Amino acid sequence: MSAQSKIATHLEEQSTAQRNIGRLLVKCSDKPGIVSAVSTFLLQYEANIVESSQYSTDPEGGMFYLRIAFHLDNLLDKKEEMEEDFNNIAEQYEMDYHFSYAVELKRTAIFVSKEPYCLMELLWEWQNGDLNTDIVVVISNHEDARGMVEALGIPFHYIPANKDIRQEVEKQQVKLMEEYDVDVLVLARYMQILTPEFVSHFPNQIINIHHSFLPAFIGARPYERAFGRGVKLIGATSHYVTNDLDEGPIIEQDIERVDHRDDIVQLKKIGRTIERRVLARAVKWHLEDRVIVENNKTIVFQ
Amino acid sequence: MSAQSKIATHLEEQSTAQRNIGRLLVKCSDKPGIVSAVSTFLLQYEANIVESSQYSTDPEGGMFYLRIAFHLDNLLDKKEEMEEDFNNIAEQYEMDYHFSYAVELKRTAIFVSKEPYCLMELLWEWQNGDLNTDIVVVISNHEDARGMVEALGIPFHYIPANKDIRQEVEKQQVKLMEEYDVDVLVLARYMQILTPEFVSHFPNQIINIHHSFLPAFIGARPYERAFGRGVKLIGATSHYVTNDLDEGPIIEQDIERVDHRDDIVQLKKIGRTIERRVLARAVKWHLEDRVIVENNKTIVFQ
Amino acid sequence: MSAQSKIATHLEEQSTAQRNIGRLLVKCSDKPGIVSAVSTFLLQYEANIVESSQYSTDPEGGMFYLRIAFHLDNLLDKKEEMEEDFNNIAEQYEMDYHFSYAVELKRTAIFVSKEPYCLMELLWEWQNGDLNTDIVVVISNHEDARGMVEALGIPFHYIPANKDIRQEVEKQQVKLMEEYDVDVLVLARYMQILTPEFVSHFPNQIINIHHSFLPAFIGARPYERAFGRGVKLIGATSHYVTNDLDEGPIIEQDIERVDHRDDIVQLKKIGRTIERRVLARAVKWHLEDRVIVENNKTIVFQ
Amino acid sequence: MSAQSKIATHLEEQSTAQRNIGRLLVKCSDKPGIVSAVSTFLLQYEANIVESSQYSTDPEGGMFYLRIAFHLDNLLDKKEEMEEDFNNIAEQYEMDYHFSYAVELKRTAIFVSKEPYCLMELLWEWQNGDLNTDIVVVISNHEDARGMVEALGIPFHYIPANKDIRQEVEKQQVKLMEEYDVDVLVLARYMQILTPEFVSHFPNQIINIHHSFLPAFIGARPYERAFGRGVKLIGATSHYVTNDLDEGPIIEQDIERVDHRDDIVQLKKIGRTIERRVLARAVKWHLEDRVIVENNKTIVFQ
To answer: Which residues are responsible for catalysis (chains A, B, C, D) (predicted)?
Structure first.
């Protein structure tokens, strides 16, 4: 299968359809008039609202969050002027805001260790055109995945890692992240702990998959501990990485039923299918700017 | 348990919280400026948008649907003026629209036959304050449910029914619907077929629960047929009643797993728990004006 | 609704169908020949195996668990002889075993505090004939549930409780358990902590519903903490009560999806539907002798 | 990734663990003594029962189904004698029965058309050691999948097909099935209809994936029709192929929630993940001899 030609076709189709799609994320204190101001602004530019989601924590003095996807002819020619112009509204309402453009794909790095299944799922979704991103590099502390990654024309870097050489390893990794100009870093079963130093380079940009329904079974060997506790459900959780292990903002979770007959090997097999779909969904939502982080929680505008 | 006093308390709490909550449903051809116009209108009244959901079938020349819940001090004093005022916007955009007010509870009638479980679920949710409605009457072609209904202070009417006296029966039922000034009619396992004549009185106001995942097993005895076909899932579907049996717009569906060991009796038991929750959700969404019917489909703004 | 007459009819039907149904639970070290010995034993009595489930932890030197339901004409006349006779096999294989008879209903007590929904679900399932038990008493530290319990002819005891009078309260409760000759004690949202002393009277006989997917959110206020953590799933867990709070053997768990819009009130509403079905399933399986406790885990032969 | 070496390692591990695992499937009229006879037979051979599942349609005069997995030292040396010996019991109880051996892998052929995702899932599960089979050939009416199939060392045959040359095509396919000595034929989104003639060669050996929750949306374009009907769930069904289109015995089904925002493209994307897991489960159960077909239904001993 020629992945490249398939992706080329996909990007072409996409660029026709999505060339003029912009997205606006807004966060501010809730006040009357925000939706009116934003929608009137877009109207003046003759932008058509394609999708709009909002959430107020409390109509009386809470926070307000908004995601709008809009279509605007010749968007790329107008975007600079529009962004500058929006500044006025943003100042008036003291907004945090962010414009993005469907055609400007985020650049994704994937970190993986020995087990390739989450990586494979992401590559599969990407080849199918379901992950709108450039996967610019895969980094691993094992050689196992090199073949399947390079077959798709993606650079693969092998960086052996263990806790004694962590600092040195992370220095190399950060350097690669800069060289490849990475926007999103996905830990697809990367089994090394990252230092606060490393994490601080990528706030709310590192997406991890943890193999339990957090906050149950934080830390190592969750399937073994799920087996020991005799739970009747096992799960997986995708979250942004912070400096507190497995405590970052949760993006997505899912579970499957298990029973007494399922030993640890079986739990891991079932768990793999959960991990694959949970991580793929979380990454997809992040790439489409559907996730807003607030304190230690996420708002996901599906 | 004094249901009345409980409900009284609940209504009181609710009226404090919800006295000033209004809802606006809009449907029209998609054009630039709708959201701007509506949100600017609400801003002029100093209404605060509490919840907003929208859906466009196609940004280029499709349909546009909007549900807004808003908070406005002294809403009930201002609503007439506001509704009249909104007319201008509505004409400009050729909108179908509808204002409703949380405090003006819809009046619900429930029809039931012999099996009471769906009725019980609705009464239970209602007693818990999870169904914001006045249940004004229960009508049955059996006496079984009289006790539990009257214990809650709800009028119960026994109208024996069979297909030979259908016209006569429906005449009585329509008369009761008028007397009780009913807005919503829930068929909670009412096992009589309704005539087109009857249905035409209540367009998109009659909610039924069908005991299969439609369009599988349309018609009678779905559990028996599910057993015969050897399906591995059974389901239930709540839909608006139209003149085509089990063909009306679907509001909600759900399923449970079954296996070869489940005989028809067991399928019915499992099915009961599905029917209960599917019907309760559909009724709840209808009561909160979350459902828009378009052709033979629904838009549900959860 | 005349619950009594309904239950009477149900029991009658049941007694015809189930008068001759026995169940045998076996636990022992796995050795060749167990199934052969047990099935040959039943054959000699001309018993017909209706249902049979088994589980080996490890065919080489692990544990073996067996549940057999069998039909035997005139079972009640033969059971004493049969049980005595079985002793030989049991000794040979060093079995723990237990015979029970469908017609000898377990005697259930339900403890409840202020929120009645789990109690209502159990009563509802019981009235439908889906819980084969005698509900012999309901005990509460609030008066709220008295009406609905007594309406079904079930004795209701109000015993005010708080941590200062715990010992005194439990003394009364144990006395009632003895008076009513209780086999199973269901904590249907009973919000008082039980002492080790109390628990020791009822090993693997007290079934609790905890309002989280354990081991997440052990202890108080799980919905508040689930909200705080920003989980995307909430759950409920039914387990046997041991002296370690929320650490007993898990019988059943289930979850529902939630999202950022769900506040604590909403989480509790959604949670109620999970708690109801999880507890009902766990109690049902216990009553049908489908649950074997081993160390801190359960084998559930569904 | 060297798939071959991985598979080699996997088979080696497996052969150590599973060399001595046999399975016995039994079907007969229910009579007292069957379990006793079979378990005593296995005991005489000093076989240890590892897993046992049974099902009676009706203890009084119904059918009886049994699946036993057993461990027996030097199984392969003894199996012939054992099978011959079992004949006596089989005759006595008029059993249909079948012995199989974990180490004798079934030989699987996969048919695929343009869309490769179900094929990929099967290959992925197989590489992970989760499908215990030899995938001996892939046949397609398109060239798309050749690369990924041949990369794993599996023969790939391109046979263009359309309804005008059906007979000719099927002749070639049957010939290949014979050459490759195929036991199981998986239609992993093979979009050509098979003739009764072809199907008759492989009774209960052809496994198909249909992209709806049958019996809803039998036939072509189920996602389009699901969209048209406005269902709130979409599903997939894996079943044995018979001469009645989409009417064969169902092995497994599953669903996902959808809503009004999901257009046909989106339904297909969601559907793909359902199809992948439903087909993988069905094939796995078939390969482990967990599925018994009776009339038009299946008993699945999970």
So the answer is: 246
Report d(CA D115, CA D121) in Å as an integer. 12
- Per-residue model confidence as pLDDT tens digits over C220-244: 999 999 999 999 999 999 999 998 8
Distant-in-sequence, close-in-space partners of A145: CB < 8 Å, separation ≥ 6: A112, A116, A119, A138, A156, D1
C-alpha span between A22 and A34 (Å, rounded): 19
Chains meeting C at 3+ CB pairs closer than 8 A?
A, B, D
Amino acid at D137: V
C252/A232 Cβ within 8 A: yes
Q: Which of B42, D270, D263, B51 is nearest to A50 (CA)?
A: D263
Handedness of CA A261, A267, A273, A277 (dihedral sign): positive
Q: In this structure, how many other beta carbons lie within 10 angstroms of the beta carbon of residue D170?
A: 19
D257 φ, ψ to 5°?
-75, 145
**What's the CA gap between C117 and C119, in Å, rounded?**
5
Contacts of C30 in chain D (CB under 8 A): 48
Question: How many CB atoms lie under 10 A from the CB of residue C153?
Answer: 11
Give yes or no for a contact between D121 and D277, defined as CB atoms under 8 angstroms apart.
Answer: yes
Between CA B149 and CA B135 the distance in angstroms is 10
Residues of C in contact with A255 (CB under 8 A): 213, 233, 255
Q: What is the DSSP string of B33-97?
A: THHHHHHHHHHHTT-EEEEEEEEES-TTT-EEEEEEEEE-TTHHHHHHHHHHHHHHHHHHHT-EE
Locate the chain D residue with the closest alpha carbon to B248. D229
Q: Domains plus CATH for chain B?
A: 20-101 (3.30.70.260), 106-300 (3.40.50.170)
D246 is catalytic: yes
Residue written as token pair 């016995």: D24
Other C-beta atoms closer than 10 Å to the C-beta of A196 total 9
Please state, as a whole number, how many other Cβ atoms lie within 10 Å of the Cβ of residue C16: 9
* B·D CB contacts under 8 A: 79
Sheet containing D250-257: order of strands:
D156-158, D133-140, D106-112, D184-187, D206-210, D233-240, D250-257
D144–A1 C-beta distance less than 8 A: yes
CB–CB contact B48 A30 (8 Å): yes
For B127-139, write each residue's pLDDT tens digit: 888 899 999 999 9
C144/B1 CB distance under 8 A: yes
List, as ranges, residues 270-289 from A with C-beta within 8 Å of D. 272-273, 277
Q: Does the complex come out with an ipTM higher than 0.90? A: yes
At D62, list the tokens. Answer: 């119904």
Cβ-Cβ pairs closer than 8 A, B with C, add up to 29
Neighbouring residues of C54: CB distance < 8 A, sequence distance ≥ 6: C35, C64, C65, C66, C67, D49, D52
pLDDT for position D9: 54
Do A122 and A1 contact (CB within 8 A), yes or no? no
Among the partner residues D2, D130, D147, nearest to A269 by beta-carbon distance: D130
